[in-house]
Amino acid sequence: MRSLQYDVVIVGGGPAGLAAALKAREKAERVAILERNDELGGILNQCIHNGFGLHVFKEELTGPEYAQRYIDMVAETDIGCYLETMVLDITPNRQIIAMNPEGMLIIEAGAVVLAMGCRERTRSQIRIPGTRPAGVFTAGLAQRYMNMENFRPGNRAVILGSGDIGLIMARRMTLEGIKVLGVYELMPYANGLLRNIKNCLEDFDIPLHLSMAVTRIIGQKRLQAVEVSAVDENLKPIPGTEEVIPCDTLLLSVGLIPENELSRQAGVELSPVTSGPVVDEKLQTSVPGIFACGNVLHVHDLVDQVTLEAEDAGSSAAAYACRTQSEDAQAAVSRQVPETEVRPEGLVRYTVPSRISTAADSATIKFRVARPVDSGRLLITSGSQVLYETKKPKIFIPSIMENIKIRPSSISDPSAAVTVTVVES
Q1: At what angle do helices 15-25 and 303-321 cross, to 10 degrees?
Q2: Full residue range of the structural domain in which residue 268 is found
């Protein structure tokens, strides 16, 4: 058993963890990354399509190229990288218990950044009836099989869900000669980015069927067909609309879940909407000294957004860890500065952060709407005080996360919650 001490420890070596570590190292001397896989880069290693880096690097990169740039930057520093290291527990006082091939690690951290990413929803979580044959994959698993292990999942495929991974895999499988029979989406609107709908479906004549669900899986050893049905406004299958589609492959692109088992063990409060931690404007969770960023906090549209958010978390974590004992006392006092709740209302589904310090000079509020709004107005208020409002109506869609900067220190009544509202106009 080894005992170690670090100023900042990042749990997860994907895009969020890499960016957080590099930013933390600018302020803190001892920084470490704990990664359960045998390589850094996370999910980007299997994303061989381009479209990454347009915001951060101002050029178009593939996922592995984007990841490699950050891996190279980390390699040029003295950041400790512990690969094949599984974190077993994080305590509220920031003690980390981990295991790797060399044995058990007990790490005392001045601050912890949670960057564990997310996982895909599976068939059992959406409860599709039928048999349990081979040929049913999550979209990300099929992506790994094809892009990293050179495995062809099948010949005739149906995709359930219009998330971005599913859309990208529709194109990827088509390019490999697999017939994609269609993408079926439960909601009356697509959930992926508009550019992926255009580039991955329309450009390859792959049909998108809205308000449809897979209601039965057919086959014994291998998938033989799926039954699809139209759904009503309550998302319930409509009797008499069933159609059987012969296929040998079903890909599920039905949402992502932040990996927050460790967060829960540390006593971190989780949002019932995002399943990610509740954080303040510095991305600090409800447990002092533990921060969160990336898809473990909430699911992002673009890796560039993950990087920028992770840099904020790394910077905040380093600042927390590097305070002296006297500064810690001052920090405890400053923690008494009134915080106000940030509350979604109307068509807004959730906000990040969920609370902000009214002493902060600047805070970025991120949010998503619950359904598409063709013409809407955004209004951010504190009581009767207007903190932000759109001058002209704009389009809001669930697949695009909105980012708005406000000035919390200008709030006149700290006891009033900040509300974020989108109304149709």
Answers
A1: 40
A2: 2-119+257-336
